[in-house]
Design goal:
The protein is mostly helical. The chain has 5 helices and no strands. Helix content is 85%, strand content 0%. The radius of gyration is 31 Å and the shape is elongated. The two termini are 43 Å apart.
Length: 121
């Protein structure tokens, strides 16, 4: 059963146990304290469940990590294309050289990591 179904059943059970005839029976059986604790735990659960539902709703509104990655890759490719196109323009030469070195270092780091992973297998 889902949490919401279980919560609905618990509410019905608590309502039934809170009827005067059942309250008296709980008292005779000396389980009033246990009932009060169960009711308290259910209230705590409902609060946590509500907070989690709110958090889940917030997460559903966020863009997915793969979508963000695709967008970033597209933007970086466009930026690298611009740098490559402008590499011979005097004001862009140093920017192109610096970014080119960073890209080479990243590629070498990635290649070294792949080799290490293959050796470990």
């Amino acid at each position: 059963m889902s949490y919401s179904s279980q919560t609905a059943q618990m509410k019905k059970l608590i309502e039934a146990l809170e009827l005067p005839s059942n309250t008296q029976k709980l008292s005779v059986l000396s389980v009033s304290n246990a009932f009060a604790e169960m009711k308290s735990k259910q209230d705590d659960f409902e609060i946590i469940f509500s907070e989690q539902a709110t958090a889940n709703a917030g997460l559903r509104q966020m863009e997915s990590a793969s979508s963000i990655r695709r967008s970033l890759e597209k933007i970086l490719k466009a930026y690298f294309s611009l740098l490559t196109a402008m590499k011979d323009v005097p004001d862009w030469i140093s920017a192109y050289a610096e970014i080119s070195e960073l890209v080479k270092a990243a590629k070498n780091s990635s290649a070294a990591r792949k080799e290490k992973d293959q050796e470990e297998k």
